[in-house]
Amino acid sequence: YTVTVLTNKKIYIKQGTIPAEKSLAFEKGNVTRLGVNMAEVEPIDKWILVKDASTLKEGDVVAIVAKDYDMALSKKLYSNGSETATNTRRDAVAISKYQDYLIAGDDVQPFILVPGSVQGTFAFYDEAREKFLVSNNSSSRYLVNQEYVDKETSFSISVTDGETIVKNVEGDYPDNKIQYYNTSKYFFSGTNSNQAICVYRLDGATGTI
User: Fold this and answer.
1) How far apart are CA 164 and CA 66, in angstroms?
2) What is the DSSP letter of 42?
3) Which residues partner with 62 through β-bridges?
4) If residue 199 lies in a helix (H) or strand (E), which one and from where to where?
5) Local structure of 151: helix, strand or coil
6) By the 8 A CB rule, do 118 and 59 touch?
């Protein structure tokens, strides 16, 4: 069994098995009670799916997740790429989803949203690296970092039919979108059409830079 408890700030999950001699039978019209001790369960952060991009604001802490796969953008670079290279991508890490919630570990990359250089856009700030996600190529599926905000780090965010479009609108790569490439399991920014993403927001969190 899996028991998931949602509070106003955290998520608690406990998994276990019921011994055969204590198996439960659920019958229509009858009430069956199952007591589970959650006292020693460690809480995890509560990430909520963003369904309306207009609710996003400066300081929100977000994660980028594959829409149709249980994978999220990782803190690591793909294939142990160099932090100073211009041809790296962002690795993907396994996660799980429960209804509109993301069940994520510490290896998922949190980003702080800050104003982009183009009106109506955001830049994604990586606090650990003290850098921003940046598009630097339209066709090679790269996603790297740089230390300042410009048009290449500025992305519009919209949500349509459950898919989040995170896209450059000006600069050298105005049609680049952040996407997931399931074949090789990484995230990139480019014009190639690959797997859609969605964005989750860390409930109650506000980041600053």
Assistant:
1) 10
2) P
3) 111, 201
4) strand 197-202
5) helix
6) no
